[in-house]
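Need residues for this backbone.
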């Protein structure tokens, strides 16, 4: 990650590793934290809950990166630093309602379906501005940027194009909504984090590449 950042004229501090721990045991998750990785992510609430509870003694910053059903948000949000995956207006409103009740502010990203894959979650790029507008009316929500995944097929060129599209969308939204602060771009995984960093990722979500060759 650092090499890629430097090679494209960015500082390695500008790109944060978020380790996806869904493949590994509690013990390995703890070791990862102890090795210096404090930003950890889960994509299923039922995997996050027991891990967060068992690792309460550590100052893990938990990220949530998967589809969140509204009936699971009350158990999930209290332990989460950043919700990467607000993928519908219904979820946005439900999160805001919960946050209002708790008298807290939730930091989140809008998940955008950049690759156009019908099986993927996320707002269509053309709906993102309305979503941001809706969020701006919800004082308990703070939208810090966008999250997206590249198409599975098409290789590095396609991934790079998808990531560039997410960055361009962010730039357009920022210009349209000057009171927003869309500094985060959560994009890139084990197979395409280099392309993501080249296109401006600030958070890369990496799982399998961290654990290659390790019995999980
Ligand atoms: C699992 C997961 C990742 C990490 O994937 P790898 O290819 O193993 O690095 C990233 N983002 C999301 C949303 C995931 O569910």
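Answer:
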């Amino acid at each position: 990650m650092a090499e890629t950042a430097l090679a494209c004229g960015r500082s390695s501090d500008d790109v944060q590793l978020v380790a996806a721990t869904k493949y590994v045991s509690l013990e390995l998750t703890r070791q990862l934290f102890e090795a210096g990785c404090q930003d950890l992510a889960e994509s299923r609430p039922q995997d996050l809950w027991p891990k967060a509870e068992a690792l309460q003694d550590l100052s893990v910053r938990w990220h949530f990166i998967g589809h969140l059903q509204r009936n699971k948000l009350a158990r999930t949000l209290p332990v989460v630093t950043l919700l990467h995956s607000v993928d519908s207006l219904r979820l946005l409103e439900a999160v805001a309602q919960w946050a209002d009740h708790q008298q807290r502010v939730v930091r989140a990203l809008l998940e955008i379906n950049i690759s156009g894959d019908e099986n993927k979650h996320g707002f269509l790029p053309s709906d993102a501005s309305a979503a941001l507008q809706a969020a701006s009316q919800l004082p308990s929500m703070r939208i810090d940027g966008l999250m997206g995944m590249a198409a599975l097929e098409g290789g590095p060129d396609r991934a790079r194009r998808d990531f560039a599209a997410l960055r361009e969308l962010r730039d357009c939204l920022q210009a349209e909504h000057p009171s927003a602060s869309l500094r985060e771009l959560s994009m890139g995984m084990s197979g395409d984090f280099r392309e993501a960093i080249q296109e401006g990722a600030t958070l890369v979500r990496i799982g399998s590449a961290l654990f290659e060759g390790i019995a999980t």
